[in-house]
Design a protein that fits this description.
- It contains no helices and seven strands.
- Helices cover 0% and strands 48% of the residues.
Length: 102
């Protein structure tokens, strides 16, 4: 996760995962990334002695800084890398109160 002036960017390396199987949820300054990967053997008759990729479902929760705008979220997936950009909410400005003189 990287934080810039106007946004926070989260990058997840998800090689071999169908982007349609990725579920993103943003709630209470927490981004949840869920998905699953089914690694199949090249030949069902072969025995696997070593596997470097996990198989099954996963879920990761990334805590975000305060003040994120859930309406300013974009996600794209390219070459196995998921990039999520979350915009920061406009800072609350102090309200100027004028005093009337009688």
């Amino acid at each position: 996760m990287q934080e810039g002036k106007d946004e926070v960017t989260v990058q997840a390396h998800l090689p071999g995962i169908d982007p349609n199987e990725i579920e993103l949820t943003l709630e209470d300054n927490a981004l949840t990334i869920k998905g699953s990967r089914d690694v199949k053997m090249a030949d069902e008759g072969m025995n696997c002695h070593r596997r470097e990729r996990f198989s099954g479902s996963f879920s990761r929760i990334v805590s975000l800084p305060e003040g994120m705008d859930s309406e300013k979220v974009e996600a794209n997936y390219k070459n196995g890398i998921l990039n999520i950009s979350i915009g920061k909410a406009e800072e609350k400005k102090p309200k100027q109160i004028s005093v009337s003189v009688e």
